[in-house]
Amino acid sequence: MMRFAIVSTSLLAFISLTAVAAEEVEITHAWTRATAPGQQVGAAYMTLQSKTDMALERVESAVAGSVEIHSMTMKDGVMQMRMLETLPLKANQPEKLAPGGFHLMLFDLKKPLKVGESVDYTLHFKDSAGKTSTQHLISPIKRTAD
Ligand SMILES: [Cu+2]
Fold it and tell me: pTM of the full predicted structure?
């Protein structure tokens, strides 16, 4: 009986560890736009899909002084960019960050972003219960989405 109890406890521990390690938001089509020499601002794109209602709250990268979540809309024939406090992700509904729409804006770049290299990001999420989580992303630097 004692042995059975020990086995089932470690099995439970294993299951909960696996659950924590599983990534709750699937990140695909990630890329960061290459910059010209002297350019201080960059942009990054990706598709985010969460299994549950979630919000992207904050993004960090060592290559940028700050990273903002932006939307881009056409108003009276003029492209307008707006900073978002959070980017809501509906369960199982892909949210595309792509040129002309949502994007991450990188300010105060520490170095030029060169094609063939990559940028590391830390994405901070919060679910509808208020639980926060982070995910790391390695995004290749490209000239276009290809
Ligand atoms: Cu922007």
Answer: 0.82
The alpha carbon of 107 and the centre of ligand 1 are apart by a number of angstroms equal to 9
Question: What is the distance in A from the centroid of ligand 1 to the CA of 9?
Answer: 49
Q: Which residues contact 140 (CB under 8 A, 6 or more apart)?
A: 30, 31, 32, 117, 118
CATH superfamily of 24-142: PCu(A)C copper chaperone (2.60.40.1890)
Closest CA to 113 of 6, 2, 18, 39: 39
Q: Are 119 and 139 in contact (CB under 8 A)?
A: yes
pLDDT in tens, 41-78: 999 999 999 999 999 999 999 999 999 999 999 889 99
